Amino acid sequence: MYVLIISLVSLIIIGLIAISYIATYNHFQTYIIRINEAEAFIDTTLRKRFDLLNKSIGIIKANIKEEQEVLECIVKLRSRKLSNFELDRELYAGINEFHHYKEKIPELKCSECFLKTDMGLFESEAEIVAARKYYNDIITDFNKLVLKFPSAIVAKIHHYKQKSYFDGKDMTDEIINDFKL
């Protein structure tokens, strides 16, 4: 009789542990899917910004008097494979150069193509800010799961590590491991 009760209690405990493990694993999978979706949206927005800046090279060259390289950082990006973090930093340098030409060459403000490109860059800025915020919110929740007990056990089993935030800073910085939750 006691053996039956002990077996039943053990079976219930093992069942509860299995259900908890499966639920936590599925929670991680949900966050991984959301992170991938956010990264894809960021990638699409960055590619859109790159295309706009790339298109503006011809417009700017047509309006400058002397022969010179325009948006060199964008031209160099054409042949490089970069992460979204690196591409974002490089595109900001290109956007700053773009705005420099906008101020330096008043004729550009009369060009409809240039103004459309400028408006597209402005709109993409709002998109990238929203995408960064969404991504960072998901990363915060994911990192909490990686650190908290009992989900930290599942994270260890599946080798889930904390992820870096997309904040426009140098992404080589290490994540602070002892942040407050």
What's the alpha carbon Rg, rounded to whole Å?
25 Å
For the sheet with most strands, the description reads: none
Task: Give the % helix.
Answer: over 70%
Query: What distance separates the N and C termini?
Result: 47 Å
Amount of beta strand: under 5%
Which stretches are low in confidence, meaning pLDDT under 50 for 5 or more residues running? 170-181
Task: Round the mean pLDDT to the nearest integer and report it.
Answer: 85
Number of helices: 5
SS-derived structural category: mainly alpha
H/E series, N to C?
Answer: HHHHH
Shape: rod-shaped
Number of strands: 0
Please describe the topology of this protein:
Elements: H1 2-63, H2 72-77, H3 84-104, H4 112-147, H5 151-157
Task: Describe the overall structure.
With 181 residues, this protein is mostly helical. 73% of the residues lie in helices and 0% in strands. The protein contains five helices and no strands. It has helices at residues 2-63, 72-77, 84-104, 112-147, 151-157. The radius of gyration is 25 Å and the shape is rod-shaped. It starts with a helix and ends in a 24-residue tail after the last helix.
